[in-house]
Amino acid sequence: MADRFGVLLRDARRRAGLTQDELAARSGVGVRTIRRLETGSGTDPRIGTVTLLADALDVTQDERRGLLAAADGKHPQPPEPEPAPAATAEPPEQVPLNPVPSALPAVPPEVSEAADNLARVIAARLRREEELRRVHDPFPLPVRWRQAPEGLADHWDNICRVPAGVTARPLDLAGEVGDVAAAYRRVPSRRLVVLGRAGSGKTVLTLRFVLDTLAARTPGAAVPVIFNIGSWDPTRTPLRTWLVEMLQRDHPGLAAAAPGGATLAAVLVDTGRILPVLDGFDEIAEGLHRPALETLNSVSMPLLLTSRFDEYERAVTVVDVLTSAAVVELTDLTPDDLAGYLPRTARRVTTGDGNGTAWDTVISALREDGGSGASANLAAALKTPLMVGLARTVYSDSRDRDPAELLNTTRFPTREAIEDHLLDTFVPTVYGGQSASPDGQGQSWDVGRVRRWLGFLADDLDRRGTGDLEWWRIGGPVSRSSRVLLATGTIILATALVHWLFFTPVAGLVLGIPLYWDVVLVDGLLTGLVIGLPFALLYVLMVVRKDRVLEPARVRVRLFDRSSLRPGLRRKIITRFAAGALGGAVAGVVYTFGNLLVRALAPYLQIASDADTLVQAIVGDALTFTAVFGLACGVVLALAAALEAPANLTTATSPGDLLAANRTTVLRLAATLALALALTITFAGFPVTGAVKALLGSLPFDINWYASGGLTVGLTGGLSAATGYIIAFTAWGHWLLFTRLRLPLSGKLPWAIGTLLDDAYRRGVLRQSGAVYQFRHARLQEHLAKSYRTGR
């Protein structure tokens, strides 16, 4: 109810020490709206408005839920209320798999539709991921877990959410991979930590958890989403903000505005409709585990967290356990597990004792020695699903290798030697002359080059301290000066080519200008400078100086789309107009002196003979071209802001599809802007020349503007400026210049980069995480990077 919301809002504002005017300025919500909400008059607030106010007040997660519940007319409730178990009774075993929809704040239909669509997209992608990983071929490895040491988990009273004075018994959470969703629902706090050594199956476990949870999900319930938490910096980005950013990166349609102003992603997170599955706590940068755990303890949202055992134990020792979280630990595979799995992955062979497989000798040694003697190293290496999966690929899928060689202690004296061998042989095996395309017609690669290319990518990720292979960040280290020089030089060259191939023949045919090739050459280069230098200035000010990484646009180009009338559009249009006007004005000044130089060189053009007339001519041209180009560029960039509409909810989220969607958006926008710039320059010239004549008065020369000449200049400028815009200010343009062109020329990647990444994904070298790729495992990334650095 509105009056209760007003009380909560007023109390939160006063605790923050803000006046109504200050809150309005910080949140973007009108002061009259805030005054009306606090007094309880008017209609109930929209969810988007509540989100903006909560962000501005920096309230806790519980306070945010209270505001949302009050805005919906409900009293705040725990997201998943649980009956208190008796002091001597077991905690309840049957708990709903998902939060009850009625316990979540009501949302507009658009938000519910977005959640349901997100659930469908994630389920389809993860099923595909399991197929590529061959999780069910022939059956899932028996990944098991047990209770972790008591010192790593919170008190059972807190985990079971029992009231004061009631003692809860420990929960029995042991199980196998198919039971993970059931084990999670037995935890009343809905906070579970899964620990394990490298390669123990944590990531596969999260896949199964999400798929099983989605299979039982009802419309309106929370959607489990896997987030690679290793890329999170808790000292710079709050958890909620980071979750929203990752959702919008992987699902661009969620960047659209929900009713009330906030994005769909923000509303989904704020209303508890996202269940974070945080994978890879151990991959957070060194020194950030403590603030990360402190931040996770400051929120009460349900979650599932995975980590390597040692890193989590150190963080808990320094800080505290994860509040209200139960903790389980993945166990090692046994020789019986290997005996039941590996032979069924290999083809049958005829032996003296009848039919068998290549693994029979290995399995017999593992069982007879009991993990000692010659089989000790191998038994230690094959305790994790990662190494078993690699061994399966290297030996079961290959006719040329005998797994019995793994028992050779001279060749493999240690467990580490066996693991390095499996990691080193994995890539040559999967690329050993076999196509990964379903029709068998896929790309054929040279194994040595593939190893070098993949090593370069792994080394680039290691250098940046991340596991996310984002196509818009691929490029290796590039200094600021190199970025500016390469971008500026490319724009100048592209503009000169446009001038030589378009303006020169058109000017000769339409304007009747004779062609002198020395003048044409100089004129093209000068035109390149006219376009390139302003773009270089804006590129330095808006991108390089701020160390910005241009990310894929989460928009599409629509001429008529009411959804594009979103909050903040007016400010964006004004900012774009100012930036365009500045760049256009600089272009006008450069064009004035370039035009003067061309007149001095061209035998068919005349230039003023005395200094006074020359100065007046320069001033007149400078005023004219500065005003025309500044107005045109400002209008065009403002138009670009107005044409950008939010992406569809059904926008594909794979890396390749995201690249294709951005290419389409950029080219459509550039074509529209090129035409708009040409028309603006053409028709803006007439009033501008009239104003310049009126301003300067009687002059010994005449300033004229011709439609044919203006259109020719406008089309040339439009095509050139569109090229400059693509290269300097779009993620796809950076991809073309710094990745698609520069890296193949230097031999670091092939020309078909997209084909390489997609093929590596189908072969199981890479995995997909939302809209980015990752290496199959961090161990594989580390091994390839190390090999690349050693070979280099």
UniProtKB/TrEMBL annotation:
Pfam families the UniProt entry points to: HTH_31 (PF13560), NACHT (PF05729)
Composition bias, Low complexity: 85-96
Protein name: Helix-turn-helix domain-containing protein
Domain HTH cro/C1-type: 9-64
Taxonomic placement: Bacteria, Bacillati, Actinomycetota, Actinomycetes, Pseudonocardiales
Membrane spanning residue stretches: 484-503, 515-544, 577-602, 622-645, 666-686, 706-738
InterPro entries in alphabetical order: Cro/C1-type_HTH (IPR001387), Lambda_DNA-bd_dom_sf (IPR010982), NACHT_NTPase (IPR007111), P-loop_NTPase (IPR027417)
Region Disordered, residue ranges: 70-108
SMART domains associated with the record: HTH_XRE
Keyword Transmembrane: yes
Annotated NACHT domain residues: 190-284
Keyword vocabulary terms for this entry: Membrane, Transmembrane, Transmembrane helix
Domain of life from the UniProt record: Bacteria
